[in-house]
Amino acid sequence: MVDSGDSVSIDMEKICLSGKEYHVPTGRGSVSVIVYGDQDKPALITYPDLALNHMSCFQGLFFWPEAASLLLHNFCIYHISPPGHELGAGPICPNAPVLSVDDLADQILEVLNFFGLGAVMCMGVTAGAYILTLFAMKYRERVLGLILISPLCKAPSWSEWFYNKVMSNLLFYYGMCGLLKEVLLQRYFSKEVRGTAEIPESDIVQACRRLLDERQSTNVFQFLQAINKRPDITDGLKRLRCRTLIFVGDSSPFHSEALHMTSKLDRRYSALVEVQACGSMVTEEQPHAMLIPMEYFFMGYGLHRPCQFSDSPRSPLSPSCISPELLSPESMGLKLKPIKTRVSLDV
Fold this sequence. Notes:
347 residues, alpha/beta, nine-stranded mixed beta sheet, Pollen-specific protein SF21, NDRG, transmembrane helix
């Protein structure tokens, strides 16, 4: 279809949006994986934030045609759900052992081995970003690059620990109640999209609220327990040798965490994109802010958009080599007012 000047011509038949679900057995329980695209292509795995899955955490990004064309042109997508977070999941047995963050990272290795995958690209949001970063530290040869959205790397601060304890008590005594959902929505989204007494909440918040209704409280409780006991992995960040691209909304409760993590990464291999007027879940709230940085990031791996999109006003790329100095909003030739880009990416 062809639309206005800000739209893109796209053949939706070439983009496979129908995924296949696999239940992968691991030594720490079964894991749900939704696979999109051609499994002969390089793999990109995703891991969502607390109480979310691929539908509530990545749908905005992957269902946006321009991002879908970039990602599915280059990758087969493997959406990994935390235990019991997949669509239609039943409650985890209360007597089942609570998995640690190390257990969750080790599950990812078993998923990769199940599908016969080698080194993969990783994309995670907040708690999921922590799990994937830990995975990259433990199994460096299995990670090509990291795309982290509002990531964590330190142990919980006192304020986060307090909020997590409040959520744990709500989950234990009241389940997925209205107050718990409000706390989670504040974790995910900026107040601009959550709405006020005068302004209704946005469609993405309403959709997320409905999807949260489907989560089993015992399953969310177990993932929260693991994240609340996570160790500080700051010291291991310098040893990462894969490229890392970090996005964070300036209204995210984890904004300072992302800045801290960026300061500890090797500047030769990392870049930071701060998105204004956005919460933690940039993938849903402002997915358009991720497109251009991801395009330049992937060019460091020799990947690019399909040629039919090269005349898009949001995609001024060609497969030629681009120097780091060009990774600025002005040099992109675009009005990227919502985005502040701090870049030290070695392309």
